[in-house]
Amino acid sequence: MIPHTRPRRSRLRLKGFTLVELMVAMTIGLIVLGAIVYLFIGIRQTFRTTDSQSRMQENARYALEMVARDVRMAGFIGCGNLEFIPVNVMASPAPANGISFATAVTGADSATGSIGGIALAGADTITITGALDGVVSIAEEATDPLNANLKVYGNPYGYVQNDVLSVTDCRTMDVFRVTNSPSVELDTAVQITLTHSNGSNTGNRIGRYGLDAFIMRVGTYTYFIGLNPATNRPALYRANLSRGLEGAVQTRELVDNVQDMQIEYGVHEAGETAPESYLSAGAIADWTRVSSVRINLLMVSADDAIVSEPQTYIFNGASVTADDRRLYQTYTATIAVRNRVP
């Protein structure tokens, strides 16, 4: 007889994590999460810093190139030496700052709010006079001084009413204001009429010019640091003192976040062309001896909290500590006035 055996019941024992194990796991998880957050914040801050530096460098290069282009061409009117060319300025009312080819480059040590009403005091300004575009040839001889019309080949540079133009054969020169609205014409085979009637000129009597004469747009620009009224941030501005009538200044923002501009001028001795020294605007007695310009720009980041603490930087030979946590960088360029160097 086979004995009857009762099957044993296997008791399944469920085993979980202890409280200590849970605490250890949570601690390790928090450490890993903290490391990830710290790494993310570091990468994000590095990106913000690098991005701000790139934008500042790009803006500085553009700003310096804009100023340098006009400084290089200061005093250029298509002829060799203005000292031997009589200039008759007949534009009336005169441009806001007049037209002076002899000085070509002037400056001031500190701007005033009178420039467009937005200039920041303390920053320097530079004013440049010269040709703004290329040459347009005379299409017909101007032999009748009573005729208020000049015919030229095309209008590729877009002359408009109230533009100030010069006509010269490098023996004499007349500077007048355009009184009609000439059409834009890129085809230099098409003749365009430019009118200089009495309404915006002292008279319509210009000199007699042959087919060797040419026309150029001339003007005066002032570069300054102004405060953008919309953003309340500093920017580099350019004021066109020529296109508007007397007392009217047309301003245009070129580059934002330009904190300051300080300028020195290379001055040469009589009979020389190389600069002997670099002086501030207030120390210059004869602007005709300026042969180069040294521009110092202070750029600032658009965003705050880029650096961990206020930055100390060197600008214009002085150590400055910022009053915020923006990033600051300085840029310098020296530009030759081409019409005053060999």
From TrEMBL:
The chain crosses the membrane at residues 20-41. InterPro entries: N_methyl_site, Pilin-like, PilW. SUPFAM superfamilies: Pili subunits. The keyword Membrane applies. It comes from the Bacteria. Keywords: Membrane, Transmembrane, Transmembrane helix. NCBIfam families: IV_pilin_GFxxxE. This is PilW family protein.
